[in-house]
Write a structure and sequence with these properties.
- The protein has 17 helices and four strands.
- It is mostly helical and 387 residues long.
- The longest helix has 29 residues, at 261-289.
- It is rod-shaped, with a radius of gyration of 38 Å.
Length: 387
């Protein structure tokens, strides 16, 4: 008999007719013989003269048939007899074990896009139950980031939930890789090493979950948000080099519909860098067009005057950095059209006797103007005294 006939025979085995211990034993014996024949038939097919494309189509049909069989058995009426119920359960296990056999031993000929039903998904996840239980225990006790913990736990729990949805073989293989990678990380004792290993794992297995993408966006943005412009560009470039290094091309990932995690982050960060550069250019154009009050004084004299005003509490509670930004944006000196906040702050804190003498002379002239305009008698007295 060929593989299709054997599968049809498996499908035709009726569980509701098994109503005694003797019939159950006969059912189990027939089931074991039939599954053994199916395996032998598959082995013969692999060693035949069939090409790889023919074998791919062959196993795609065989596995799809078994998946439909599991779906049909789930939707049928459960036998009232306990022996019939056991027979139905054994039939489902046999179908799952056949799928395991095909995907493990003939994986080169099994297309990862083949769809499998919810029963097989839970069977597959059950084989990783001990590992996933350990991971969940470690995650719940660890001080890892809550966002990542919730994503990991949600992903694991999804495989043990009754969802009545199909999954592809690639999705199941990816879940196994995820568990294997994470179980090795949970054995690490230091939280710092564990966090770094998790970060690399996200890229190594290409865990392009949307929540992970948002989490890494915030992490990267936080690394440069409070930095100066030059340092911000350097940090961005380091991240871009890292993301380029982690890009592997078309490989198995969490969601095949989405691009690679490193590609998504790289494109986003390049966009952020471009927007930052555009904002800098717009700011530069605006500063060039902005009217600046032309002080006919050197920068050191302007900074000295600002220092006097600040110490006299003329600016109130305004921070000194904001004062520097205001004056460098809206004022030009005798020799410079554009002033730098950094250079201006340096002149502000520098104590120079020559500058002090010249500014005092300027202030004396201002006081003389006030006296002449508002206190003429005092101005006459001062003129007699000093001249």
């Amino acid at each position: 008999m060929n593989g299709q006939d054997l599968l049809e025979k498996l499908s035709a085995m009726l569980c509701d007719e098994v109503c005694s211990e003797v019939k159950l034993q006969c059912f189990v014996q027939d089931l074991n013989v039939l599954t053994s024949e199916i395996r032998q038939c598959w082995i013969s097919e692999v060693f035949s003269k069939a090409c790889n494309d023919e074998l791919e189509r062959y196993f795609h049909y065989q596995i799809s048939f078994l998946s439909r069989l599991l779906t049909r058995e789930n939707s049928c009426i459960i036998p009232s007899c306990i022996f019939g119920q056991k027979a139905l359960q054994l039939k489902k296990i046999a179908a799952c074990n056949l799928i395991d056999f095909a995907t493990v031993y003939f994986f080169r000929h099994v297309n990862g896009s083949v769809c499998l039903n919810d029963t097989y998904k839970k069977h597959f996840a059950g084989g990783l139950a001990a590992e996933t239980a350990l991971i969940k225990t470690v995650l719940q006790k660890s001080a890892a980031d809550k966002t990542l913990k919730d994503i990991f736990l949600g992903y694991i729990n999804e495989f043990f939930r009754d969802t009545n949805t199909t999954v592809t073989l690639d999705q199941l293989r990816y879940f196994r890789n995820f568990v294997i990678e994470l179980i090795s990380i949970t054995k690490m004792e230091e939280d710092a090493k564990r966090s770094e290993a998790v970060r690399h794992m996200l890229f190594n297995i290409d865990f392009n979950h949307f929540g992970v993408f948002l989490y890494l966006q915030e992490t990267i943005r936080g690394s440069y948000a409070e930095k100066a412009k030059r340092e911000r560009i350097i940090i961005m470039d380091k991240h871009l080099i890292f993301l380029q290094f982690k890009t592997k091309g078309d490989v198995m990932r969490y969601d095949q519909r989405w691009p690679s995690l490193s590609v998504m982050l790289f494109e986003w960060l390049k966009g952020e860098q471009f927007q930052m550069e555009q904002a800098r250019l717009r700011s530069s154009v605006m500063s060039n067009r902005l009217f600046k009050l032309p002080f006919q004084l050197p920068v050191s004299h302007i900074a000295f005057l600002v220092r006097l005003l600040y110490k006299a509490n003329v600016f109130g509670s305004v921070r000194l950095t904001e004062v520097f930004c205001f004056f460098t944006t809206h004022v030009s000196s005798k020799r410079q059209q554009h002033l730098s906040p950094g250079a201006f702050s340096k002149d502000y804190y520098t104590k120079n006797m020559v500058t002090a003498v010249e500014v005092r002379h300027l202030l004396s002239k201002m006081i003389a103007e006030i006296n002449r305009d508002y206190f003429p008698v005092l101005a006459a007295i001062c003129a007699v005294v000093f001249y």
